[in-house]
């Protein structure tokens, strides 16, 4: 004969609660899906691993529609990894996150960097060109699918004087748009969907338009339909591709006054804030700071991202810093610190770590001994790929 359930007096008004054979409260599956749609990537993946009905719902189009409005904020899980080549050494992958393993796609072959120089990367796409050759052809590589698109500049396309810019980026497929601009911001856009260049477009310039060309190593920043280039210490050029209008954004007052480094080297890096506003990262003597433009584009505000001492465990006020590509989806900032090596900063958590101490030599202002490209993905592609690989369990 089974023993009776034990009962105890509750803390209020003599109520009783059952402790044996108690069950957690029942939560309907549709409510769980709603909760997961508002959770971070790791929680969604763990939820998909619980049982098949939830996994089936996450794979369905209704869940993807719930995820579509997600915008703003950084998600560390969207950073898949980074590849690099240093001086004349062998190309290699610096790191790859655990979430990259479930991808069933052909992955990026870092050996490509032995023969091709990375020019710009965004999302899962990397623009490269053959080393040692002045060629009109570049290649756009999808690091998730391995798909390569050859892009040749024809007579109908503008000259590529400004750093090339990836506009629309489709992670799951080879879809992209590549913008080139000459010194007067006459632009052309190559569409992978149509397989050809569009017509040249003459940009409307302000009277105070600056003629300083960005450094070749200065990565552009795309916010919506606007491309931003940091033109050394002269200002920021903002080109609205949808209206073919360009304006000059003044830099924060004296933002580079304390920054040391070789003449001609960029002293900052364009980035976006968590809510999608234009920002400028600056390596000051004792801190890495971030200036963010107000929503009305009227003023800049400054915040300290991290102290240098928190990165390397000591003060290093005279240490030269070269910024490397920014991961707009994960909020990752990569930089090279003279005498320290390769450093990764997470703008979301404001934490940093030294990835390698083998990249201590900065190089010249116009030539970096370290070439690096980031691999990121979008939320839907990541979750869809991981959950599909769970089907076999």
TrEMBL record:
Signal peptide: none annotated. PANTHER family: OS03G0775900 PROTEIN (PTHR35828:SF3), OS08G0203800 PROTEIN-RELATED (PTHR35828). Residues 97-385 form the DUF7595 domain. This is DUF7595 domain-containing protein. Residues 1-10 have a biased composition (Basic residues). Residues 1-23 are annotated as: Disordered. It comes from the Eukaryota. It holds the Pfam family DUF7595. It comes from Panicum miliaceum (Proso millet).
